[in-house]
């Protein structure tokens, strides 16, 4: 089908590639510099920052197409159009790395049953894992994703800083990271947890804290306490 995609950021870039590879004609527009007359096709996807979605949608006016945003946290009703929806691919995206959309779970919502079917047709052309999910549930999903991805990646960054102190490359962590991720494919995260915080090995924890300062020290203490309480309450 013909799809207008508004947004050229991390997700927009990956979505443009996936839709084009699936054989769709994609009209790709920059979120800050498009005119309503540029919009064509059966579906308009808004893939911009959350706080810009309402502004972009307002510029579309009373579009006759199905207008859908791609946010995990924004309510579908932020869109003023009668035909409105959400197509949320749950994955971490970067312009520098194009991902395989076939493995990405995509979550859909629309105000009209026929529009849900249209979004599902579009989503299934790029992904094998498509679900319907309302806005409140999608916010919980996005929260879970922030813990599982964004916060974990921040810990990778802190790990890299600790390694730089002694001249070691971050690559030495990759086998550990890979095995940690593989484990939760077969056992629940609660059972997969290891490390000094589970048993509250105070000697190790104090030595680690003595090596840290500022926010990193505070985060280490909070994480250790959270792990201990989750496993001993």
Quick description:
With 233 residues, the chain is an alpha/beta fold. The chain contains nine helices and seven strands, in the order βαββαβββαβαααααα.
Folded structure, characterized:
The model has no long low-confidence stretch (mean pLDDT 95). Helix 8 (202-210) packs antiparallel against helix 9. The termini are far apart. 46% of the residues lie in helices and 15% in strands. Helix 1 links the parallel strand 1 (2-6) and strand 2. The chain is built from nine helices and seven strands, in the order βαββαβββαβαααααα. The protein has helices at residues 10-21, 53-60, 113-124, 135-164, 174-183, 189-192, 196-199, 202-210, 214-231; strands at 2-6, 25-29, 43-46, 66-69, 84-89, 105-110, 129-132.
What key attributes describe this structure?
233 residues; 7 strands; 15% strand; 2 domains; 46% helix; alpha/beta; 9 helices; 7-stranded mixed sheet; N-(1-d-carboxylethyl)-l-norvaline Dehydrogenase, domain 2; Rossmann fold
